[in-house]
Design brief:
Layout: E1 9-10, E2 13-14, H1 18-22, E3 27-31, H2 36-49, E4 54-60, H3 70-90, E5 98-103, H4 112-129, E6 133-137, H5 144-159, E7 164-168, H6 176-179, E8 186-191, H7 194-206, H8 208-216, H9 220-233, E9 236-241
Parallel strand pairs: 3-4, 3-6, 4-5, 6-7
Antiparallel strand pairs: 1-2, 7-9, 8-9
Helix pairs in contact: 2-7, 3-7, 4-5, 8-9
The protein binds zinc ion (ZN).
The site of zinc ion has 5 residues, from loops.
Length: 243
C-alpha cells in the first residue's frame, strides 16, 4: 500500500507527514509495557509496516509474577504477551518484529550494567536496521518504567548523534494543548491519517486484558470513554528535544 506523503489536517491542525517521522527508513519503537506501542504509536506503526517496516522492543512484561497470586499474574503476563502479538499483526506487522525482554514491572533499568547492555543492544538494532528515528515514552511521564525507557533512548542517542529520539505521549491530559506546543527546547510533531486509524482501532481492541481492568475500576467506565475517544479519534503526538 502506498504511503500518503502529504500532510493532512485534523481539527485545523497541521499534521506531520510520515516521511518526516521516519526519515524514510524503518523505525524502532521502545514500549515500557505491553500496549504502550499501540496506544502511543499505533497509526505511526501501521504506516511503517506498510512501508519500510518497524521493530518494537517490549521492555517489561506488564505484570509482576513476584507478587501474591503469582499464578494468576503469570497467566496475565502470557495473555498480555499474546495480545501484543495480535495487536502488532492488526497493525500490519509480524511476531518477529517484536523483541520481548520481560523485565518485571517497575524494573526497567535506568543505570548500571544491565542498563548499559540495553543501550548497547538497542544501538545495534538501530544501526543494523538503518533506523533514523527511535521512539520512546516521554521523560516527563510519572511511571518509573516509562522514565527508564526514555533514559535508555537518550543513552542510545548520545552514542549515535544522527539518530533522532521522539517521545510519544499516551494519555489525554488537561495540559494537552500546552504539552503539544513546540518550545525553544522541543519540537512537537502530530500524526493522524484516516487510512491508519482503522488498524489502530483494531489493535487497541486486541489489548483485552487491559481494557477489562478499566471496566472493573469504578472510575474505569468514564476513563475508558475519554481514553478510547482520544486514542481512536485523536492524533498521535511526538516530542523531539533539540540537541
Ligand atoms: Zn506503560
Amino acid at each position: 500500500m502506498a504511503i500518503s506523503r502529504s500532510a493532512v489536517r485534523l481539527d485545523g491542525k497541521k499534521m506531520s507527514d510520515f516521511a518526516t517521522l521516519s526519515g524514510e527508513r524503518p523505525i524502532v519503537v521502545l514500549a515500557p509495557h505491553p500496549g504502550d506501542e499501540t496506544l502511543g504509536c499505533g497509526m505511526l506503526l501501521a504506516a511503517a509496516f506498510a512501508g519500510r517496516g518497524a521493530r518494537i522492543v517490549a521492555l517489561s512484561r506488564g505484570a509482576n509474577p513476584d507478587r501474591p497470586c503469582a499464578s494468576a499474574t503469570q497467566s496475565l503476563v502470557s495473555r498480555r504477551s499474546a495480545e501484543v502479538v495480535e495487536a502488532v499483526r492488526a497493525l500490519g506487522g509480524r511476531s518477529s518484529d517484536i523483541e520481548r525482554w520481560n523485565f518485571p514491572l517497575g524494573h526497567v533499568p535506568m543505570r548500571g550494567p544491565v542498563y548499559e547492555r540495553a543501550v548497547d543492544w538497542i544501538e545495534a538494532l538501530c544501526v543494523s536496521s538503518g533506523a533514523r528515528c527511535l521512539y520512546a515514552s516521554g521523560l516527563e511521564n510519572a511511571h518509573v518504567d516509562h522514565l527508564a525507557t526514555a533514559t535508555i533512548a537518550r543513552g542510545v542517542a548520545q552514542r549515535q548523534p544522527a539518530l533522532r529520539v521522539l517521545h510519544y505521549t499516551l494519555w489525554p491530559s488537561p495540559r494537552a494543548d500546552v504539552e503539544g506546543t513546540s518550545t525553544a527546547q522541543t519540537k512537537t510533531f502530530r500524526f493522524a491519517a484516516e487510512q491508519w486509524r482503522k488498524p489502530k482501532r483494531r489493535a487497541v481492541r486486541c489489548h483485552r486484558s487491559q481494557l477489562a481492568e478499566l471496566e472493573i475500576d469504578p472510575q474505569g467506565t468514564k476513563l475508558r470513554e475519554v481514553m478510547m475517544h482520544s486514542l481512536m479519534e485523536g492524533e498521535e503526538r511526538f516530542v523531539e528535544h533539540h540537541r
